[in-house]
Amino acid sequence: MKKSILTLAFVLLWIAFAQASDPAFIAAMQKQLEAKNTIATFEESQAVTNGFLRIAEATETEWLPYYYAALLKTEAVFRFDIEKDKTLDEALELVKKAEKIAPENSEITALHGYILMGKISLDPGSRGQSMSPQAMQLFGKAINLDRENPRAVTLMAQMELGMAQFFGTGPEKACGMARMGLDLFKKETEKVTKDYILPTWGKSQADEVASKCN
């Protein structure tokens, strides 16, 4: 019985590795990531999001396409004049799909918290008290899942800074976390290769928080 379980686990691991390392999948993801970096309008954002969703439909066991589609919807809320609450709700649905594929994933958990942070920013007066603890809990969980994840640390720093500004307290904790995030981004840069398709975004946000500390 034990041998059968180990064999099944090996087969599932091999299938996941085979798909994640598939040249066609990597090429499709890289094409969308390159397009993501040139987005200037909401229409372009929608087109790239739809591209990720098409990849998701073709690769049902891969979390990254859903992750990037959710990230793009979240970023669109901060960049464009759109139906913000509706778009963030759509991002939440996508991140939940990613969570089903890859539960207990630090990147997905951090993005989930980021979406909630976006929801809070739309109406901090009525949402802050109930949703801030949820976002903080998600960022804390993301850090515990992977202490080398710069996005989890940076988003926590952003949240800490916002709370410090709201309550009129010092930014020391946020500044410390932002500096930690920048150190982690530096380490992450050393790991990035030509075929790297895992998340690398967020350094500008760490820089922004750190700039409040000078």
Structure description:
The N terminus is likely disordered. This protein folds into 2 domains: 80 residues, no CATH class; 85 residues, Alpha Horseshoe (Serine Threonine Protein Phosphatase 5, Tetratricopeptide repeat), CATH 1.25.40. It has 214 residues and is mostly helical. The protein is globular and about 50 Å long. The protein starts with a helix and ends with a helix. It contains 10 helices and no strands.
Task: Map the helices and strands.
Elements: H1 2-20, H2 23-36, H3 42-58, H4 64-79, H5 84-101, H6 106-122, H7 124-145, H8 150-167, H9 172-191, H10 203-211
Describe this structure in a few short sentences:
By secondary structure, the protein is mainly α.
Low-confidence stretches: 1-20
Radius of gyration: 18 Å
Count of the separate structural domains: 2
The end-to-end distance, rounded to whole angstroms, is 60 Å
Number of strands: 0
**Rounded mean pLDDT score:** 90
CATH architecture of the largest domain, by name, is Alpha Horseshoe
Structural class: mainly alpha
The largest sheet, given as strand count, sense and whether it forms a barrel, is: none
Number of helices, counting only DSSP H or I runs of 4 residues or more = 10
Assign a percent range to the helix content: over 70%
- Estimate the strand proportion: under 5%
Shape: globular
Order of helix and strand elements from N to C terminus: HHHHHHHHHH
How is the CATH topology of the largest domain named? Serine Threonine Protein Phosphatase 5, Tetratricopeptide repeat
Question: Tell me, what is the CATH class of the largest domain?
Answer: Mainly Alpha
